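Project outcomes to date are best conveyed with an example. Our students and postdoctoral researchers have been running inverse folding experiments weekly, and each run begins with a structure described purely in tokens. The record below, which covers 354 residues, was selected by the lab manager from last quarter's runs and is presented without edits.
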């Protein structure tokens, strides 16, 4: 449904996206994960055709974004990080306006507004001014405008930022329901957000793809060679003799601390050997008083995957990081400001193509 090939975006000397390759299958919910400034929003903007790529190819629903931009963009519904709503309009007025922008046939507009209102559960908010809605409902209005025209692909950039826990749960359920009829791309820097709703995860750092897979695949990959921590009543010699007799252990380390006879055991694979250890120590008449399996979380995976790239900040990226702290903008936004003239020219060119 979506294919990105060799995607590059440069702003002067700053490389926001660096030769990114990925594919999104039909009906899939893809999670696009990365720290602030990783290039997520820039990638989303390129996928939607809002800005052009410096290099590379984007195929959406079989249409090349460069060769057939109008057909490619027609296949996409987009919710930016800041919902593009008019606060002085009612929900119905705004969605009617969006149907006109998206060239929905006049006789179908009323039905289309009713459809997207029903999907996003906005029935009770139809006549209210958008400026009087809570942030959660404004997000729903933003999603509703993305659904107008029933596009095959829905792209959501940080859809739950700033929401309270109840609103986050509601938006997550809405995103899951959308995947029944649409391909969904979700961008976020929050691991829990991605793992809660996505079928496949891409982790990027400084514009580069560092990990890709389903949540289960990433978990298995991260837990290769996981650790067990155990405390056994017995001498060091007795404990080591038992541990060395058990298959599947690659390394044994005695832990320093208040308690004696504590050990960290590194495993060769993800196979659970706790039952084997229990019977081995029981046979040797050595009681186990503590046995803990240290399993990495998806947050640990994310931090490890992005740590190396975080240490490799270039001088330009350090400047952008400072600007981010001072202005509250993302690094992507700061980079875009560095070349505003270039972006304005790109938009003019894209408008001419359409």
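After processing, the design step wrote out the following sequence:
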């Amino acid at each position: 449904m979506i294919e990105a090939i060799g995607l590059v975006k440069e702003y002067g000397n700053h490389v926001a996206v660096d030769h990114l390759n990925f594919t999104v299958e039909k009906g899939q919910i893809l999670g696009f994960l990365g720290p602030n400034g990783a290039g997520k929003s820039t990638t989303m903007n390129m996928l939607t055709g809002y800005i052009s790529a410096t290099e590379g190819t984007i195929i959406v629903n079989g249409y090349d974004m460069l060769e057939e931009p109008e057909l490619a963009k027609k296949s996409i519904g987009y919710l930016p990080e800041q919902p593009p709503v008019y606060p002085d309009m009612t929900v119905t007025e705004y969605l009617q306006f969006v149907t006109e922008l998206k060239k929905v046939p006049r006789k179908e507009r009323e039905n289309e507004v009713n459809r997207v209102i029903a999907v996003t559960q906005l029935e009770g908010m139809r006549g209210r001014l958008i400026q009087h809605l809570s942030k959660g409902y404004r997000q729903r209005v933003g999603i509703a405008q993305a659904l107008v025209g029933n596009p095959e692909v829905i792209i959501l950039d940080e859809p739950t930022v700033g929401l309270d826990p109840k609103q986050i749960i509601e938006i997550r359920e809405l995103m899951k329901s959308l995947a029944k009829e649409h391909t969904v791309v979700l961008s976020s820097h929050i691991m829990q957000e991605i793992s809660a709703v996505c079928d496949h995860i891409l982790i990027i750092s400084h514009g580069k793809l560092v990990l890709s897979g389903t949540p289960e695949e990433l978990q298995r990959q991260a837990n290769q060679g996981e650790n067990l921590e155990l405390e056994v009543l017995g001498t060091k010699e007795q404990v080591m003799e038992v541990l060395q007799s058990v298959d599947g252990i690659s390394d044994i380390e005695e832990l320093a601390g208040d308690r004696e006879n504590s050990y960290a055991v590194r495993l060769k694979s993800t196979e659970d050997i706790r039952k084997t250890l229990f019977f081995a120590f029981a046979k040797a008449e050595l009681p186990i008083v503590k046995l803990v399996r240290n399993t990495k979380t998806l947050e640990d995976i994310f931090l490890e995957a992005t740590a190396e790239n975080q240490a490799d900040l270039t001088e330009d990226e350090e400047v952008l990081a400072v600007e981010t702290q001072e202005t509250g903008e993302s690094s992507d936004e700061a980079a875009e400001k560095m070349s505003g003239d270039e972006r304005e020219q790109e938009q003019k060119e894209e408008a001419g193509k359409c």
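Residues 311-327, 334-343, 350-354 have pLDDT under 50 and may be disordered. The radius of gyration is 25 Å. The training component of this project remains on track.
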